[in-house]
Amino acid sequence: MRDYHVHSNYSDGAFLFRMTAAAEEAGLDGVGIADHCMLPVSERQRRSRNTVGFTLDATHERRREAIEYLDEGRDIDVYDAVEMDYDPRGEEEIADFLAEAGFDYAIGSVHSVDDTFVQWEGEFADMDEGELEAFVDDYYDALVDLVESELFAIAAHPDLIERTDSLRGRSTVDHYRRVADALADSRTVPELNAGRALQDIGVVHPSEEFLEALLDRDVGVTVGTDAHAPGELGPRAEFLRERVTELGLEPASPFDE
User: Which of 43, 105, 152, 163 is the most exposed place for a label (fewest CB within 10 A)?
Assistant: First the structure.
């Protein structure tokens, strides 16, 4: 088993060497270091990027040297990857950066929609029901744009809005089917993500209904623990092992054609 979505201290995770050691201890054959990267398209995004320090666009070459060193010193494949914030307004800049950087593969994720950050509960405090429903529609519009851009091997946690109380449960089967149709015509594969699976809310991405829509269209899925700390990686990897066995799936690889 290979985990294609792990973070390190090059974004918001633990030290790189500790994350790779945890992957090896978990019995994985490979681990993808997919740190966050944001290319801001607005002043608000710029302030956010600089506050949280998602600056892999400036540090990826340094990280690549560390990954090459760790890959030589461990009995596990370590991949040089990225989790790129996708905003359709910045698609050309993202394409140029990914072409220049030459990562082993790229993960795309929608963390904000028109400068409204998906996981910040406070963003939605003053929205009425109609505005919340419209935001969910806009989120899935952006996700379809991400898939159709063909910039990414993997679409991360495709129903990320399920992590936010105000948005949870507002996705519909129609949303899921629309994304599944786009994925069926794309090289991009969605991710079975365990980032919140073992927490109180027990969110697994994609949801059961979303996964059913994907499988109905013969869309494969890859796997990612979305681990940010060494202690998270092993339990989440075991959860994913059990989940894919239960589903009878052979996880896809970002290197599949």
Answer: 43
